[in-house]
Amino acid sequence: MVDLSFRRRRMQDLRKQPGFDQIAIACMFVLYAPIVVLVVFSFNDNRSVVRWTEFSFRWYAAAFGNDGIRNATLVSFQVAAFATFFSVIFATMAALATTRTPAFRGQTAAYAIINQPLMVPEIVTAVATLSFFAILKRLTGVTGIGYLMVAHTVFCIPFAYMPIRARLEDMNLSLEQAAADLYATPLRVFWRVTLPLLLPGIFAGAMLAFVVSLDDVIITLLVAGPGETTLPIYILGQIRRGITPEINAVSTLLLGLTLIFVTLFFFLGRKRT
Amino acid sequence: MLAPVQDTSNETRLARARRLRDVEERRTRRFLLAPALLVIGIFGLFPLTISMLYSILTPGTYGGVTWKLSGEAYLQFLFERDIFDGSLSLSSTYLQIYGRSIGLALVATIGALILGFPTAYFIASKPREQRNIWLFLITLPFWTNLLIRTYAILLIIRDEGIINLGLMSVGVIETPLNILYTDGAVFIGLIYSYLPFMVLPLYASLEKLDFKLVEAAYDLYANRFQVLRRIIIPMAKPGIVAGCILVFIPGLGAYITPELLGGGKKLMIGNMIALQFGSSRNWPFGSAAALILMVVVMAALLIYVRNAGKQGAHHG
Questions:
Q1: Which domains does chain A have, with CATH numbers?
Q2: What does pTM read for this prediction?
Q3: Beta-carbon count within 10 A of B25 CB
């Protein structure tokens, strides 16, 4: 035991590089410090975002009483819910088709298409989608929030796909084969065996899709029509107009929401050991 | 003579069963893949061809396009058309924006590498149980809203921000440092936004590092710097390439960072493109600019894929 711990300490020491620990700790600090400052000053009883006076929920009350923020939140949730629902279904189906199967023709192409939204810069996707929708609107005369919802669904699919596929790859086929041996129909096998086992992956995918949709700025900024302002777009507009602690309050709420979802994702998506 | 006939018919029956199963499998797969591929194909890939089309049309007066072929959008990158006599003269305005963007993205990538490498190494050299927590801490900001993180940076580096007020109250400076709305601010913002993209692939490479090699190098009287330069960095090379590309690509197409921290005066490609679809009302030029950006990014991705392929081959 003594020997082992000694050896371990020696290894630890060998691994050290001068200055690396300090830089790493500084990086961690710098990553979080600005966010902490933002959150702290959302509770400031003052118009200033830098001089602390007293703790208060004043700016949260202002945010909750603000119609613009309420509407934007509603739009954000509608779009994110729609995009999450459909992207998760499509991603689950695609994951079932692309994992645990012998290589098939067009597999690489399928991967490439599913990951396409991640490879093209967001601003390019945004203007291309805007151009396409402009033509569609002209041809069909249909307008509305549906366009924004579809645009979000597209880029949510790869994010939902990743954890679902990872989960599927960790599941071996023996349980499904056992069920099939006991004369379960393929559909029954799916509902009673595959789906319950896959659920954590599906939830993790849904969390990611929801967060990614909720946070999107660029595509929404270009594609959204009048009256389809999402929360990030509202915040962007406010920042352009001038900084108020109310922005801090809304931002903190959005951050908190993301934090909850991502933490859930982290624990759901973790491999069982 | 009967037996062989029976054999072949058995075989064909088996073959037919297998073929039927294959057909069914293919049908199921097609059904499962169809929705995802169709949605992305129609609403993700197809619009890119619309952009290609738009880039060779004429801008409409109130935005959009008029259906008249024109190469003007691509000419505009290099030339400026005189408003009065329509003559072309060489102009580097847009090339400069591309140059600036590439320069800023490159410098930010190098900055992120210098900060990200020690951070990834630090995590990789932690005991296994602790690594997940550190990784979680690194990835968490990545999932939080980019806009909000940029706003947080803005709050800090403003003239009346915490940094300036702090330095002034201590007496280091008398007038606030002008950071916001400079290239420096965009640089800080880009590093801050994309540092996790650098750390994660670096960590993936460094995690596999066999510290026995490090130990062996020390046994052969290498000093710490030699170990770093001759052992650790070469072993982490795939991660370095991947991290650099993952930071460079979004940095190049950044919109929010230059918009908020550059104050709209320090344009990058992303803002320039968005502007064409907004107040500049030149959709063809915006489309052409977007396509050129995409080509640059695709080239970078190709290097990444090649590199990843080599890495895969290397590890068997």
A1: 2-41 (no CATH), 67-270 (1.10.3720.10)
A2: 0.87
A3: 14
Q: Which of A202, A173, A193 is nearest to A95 (CA)?
A: A202
Question: Which residues in chain B have Cβ-Cβ distances shorter than 8 Å to A11?
Answer: 211, 215
Neighbours of B170 (CB within 10 A): 8
CB contact under 8 A, A35 and B152: yes
Q: Is B111 on the interface with A (CB under 8 A)?
A: no
Structural domain boundaries in chain B: 2-54, 102-281
Residue type, A57: F
CATH topology of domain B102-281: MetI-like fold (1.10.3720)
- Cα distance from A52 to chain B (closest Cα, Å)? 11
pLDDT of the residue at A210: 93
Instruction: Give residue-wise pLDDT tens across range A153-184.
Output: 999 999 999 989 988 988 888 888 888 888 88
Structure tokens at B308: 């990843």
Q: Amino acid identity of B242?
A: A
Q: Which burial class, exposed, middle or buried, applies to B206 when counting CB atoms under 10 A from its CB (0-12, 13-18, 19+)? A: buried
Residues of A in contact with B50 (CB under 8 A): 128, 131-132, 135
| Interface contact A28-B137, CB threshold 8 A | yes
The whole-angstrom separation of Cα B251 and Cα B187 is 9
